[in-house]
Protein: mRNA interferase
Organism: Candidatus Scalindua rubra
Amino acid sequence: MAIHRGEIYFVNLNPVKGREQAGNRPVLVFSIDAINKLPLIVTVVVGTKGENISRDYPTNVRVSSAESGLPIETVFLCFQIRSLDPKRFPEKPAGKVSDEVMEKIANVVRYCLGL
């Protein structure tokens, strides 16, 4: 199965600790495809329902359903980066973001990491 940067999958993030996002969540593949092809890990940005986030913060990117292909608006929490085993991912992605949205998310991740 090929996993590509910019694709969105619903992945079970359990088990978790503390304030980590839990349960079945949309995750946006953030790692580059050269890494995603290797039998290692896939780095993702975790998402949540847009209705759960009442205001926009500089650490989040709000993506409409039209921009993602998901059934609802999603907020990607760019401070919630996880590295996941590819075995967690289903066969097919649930959505995908454009290069423009991916660049916006990359900029916010850089902000969150102080890069």
Remarks:
- The mean pLDDT is 94.
